[in-house]
Amino acid sequence: MDFLYTYETLKLEFPLVNPEKAAFTILGVPFDGTTSFKAGARFGPTLIRHATLNLESYVLDYDVDISQLPIADIGDVAVVAGDPRKTADRVRETVEELMKANPKTMPILLGGEHSQTLGAVEALKPASYVVFDAHFDLRDSYEDNPYNHACVARRISELGVKEAMFGIRSGTREEVEYAEENGIQWVHARDYDFDAFVELVKPLPEPVYLSIDIDAFDLSLVPSTGTPEAGGLSFWDVVEAIEWLVEKKRIVGFDIMEVAGENLGDVTALTAAKLLFYFIGAMGRDI
Ligand SMILES: [Mn+2]
To answer: Diameter of the chain by CA atoms?
Structure first.
């Protein structure tokens, strides 16, 4: 793990295990080098870890105490300032190394800009990419950079990965056309419900990479994020979708991205931390 810095204070407050023995391995990606509007995603991983202090490790709904599960937190990737491609290379190499050491672990990225999801997807080679996001992220290039956060789903689609998107409510005509031409299915936030989710995700090939851009949620839940948009999904919308995926599909990687902010206890990080516990709790029912 050459590219990591791992301050003790930046880790989850659990009895953690070695990544070679972990069912879940947390990796922070504190990158915000191409943020367009609201800065602070570099603090996302730290803010999410801190927000977990507020939560019970017992996930009520599942009767699972996640502090009893084998979780590793390997710290944060040392980012290459201003360079999303080089930073994503470090994410890819770190995840590759991790999977070599423990092919059974579930890597969980906490971010940080959505651009960094590309590195994890390149390492894990899923057949499908299921994403909750306010935005398509299907631009060919943005601000002269094909690895900008606004291009991540385009780069992933070019790898031949099937995509389904939920919570979309912002994009360009070109992105809509690209989605149509390339068989990328999506559900507008306004039309989102559980049945619409299942209909699109059911036929997708496995394994699946699940990415949560925190801006998929309604703005009231996630005020601190790089490109906030009104009119998003509810917390339970996303939790129910995660539960279905965990039960029905093989998931190879998970991330919660675009959490920003500057203050401990930020609402956005609290939303992200709770979601993290639901994901680990849902997966942990079978461990
Ligand atoms: Mn987004």
So the answer is: 49
Task: Map out the domains of the chain as residue ranges.
Answer: 4-284
Q: How far is the CA of 31 from the centre of ligand 1 (A)?
A: 15
Q: What is the enclosing helix (H) or strand (E) of 76?
A: strand 71-77
- The alpha carbons of the chain give a radius of gyration, in whole angstroms, of 17
pLDDT given for residue 17 in this prediction: 87
How far apart are the CA of 100 and the centre of ligand 1, in A? 31
Could you give the residue ranges of the DSSP H alpha helices within 125-266?
152-158, 173-181, 194-201, 235-248
Q: What are the residue ranges of helices labelled H in 15-111?
A: 44-51, 84-101
Q: In the CATH scheme, what architecture does the domain 4-284 have? A: 3-Layer(aba) Sandwich (3.40)
Say if strands 24-29 and 106-111 run parallel, antiparallel, or are unpaired.
parallel
First-to-last alpha carbon distance for the chain, in angstroms, is 26
**pLDDT at position 274 over 70:** yes
CA 16 to ligand 1 center in whole angstroms: 31
Distance of CA 198 to the CA centre of its chain: 19
Q: What is the pLDDT of residues 178-218, one digit of tens each?
A: 999 999 999 999 999 999 999 999 999 999 999 999 999 99
Strands 4-5 and 71-77: antiparallel
Is 215 annotated in some ligand binding site? yes
Rounded Cα gap, residues 7 and 25, in angstroms: 16
pTM attached to this predicted model: 0.96
Half-sphere CA count of 172, side-chain side, radius 13 A:
11
Residue 9 has pLDDT above 60, yes or no: no
Q: What is the pLDDT of residue 1?
A: 59
| Pairing mode of beta strands 64-65, 58-59 | antiparallel
What are the pLDDT digits (tens) for 143-182? 999 999 999 999 999 999 999 999 999 999 999 999 999 9
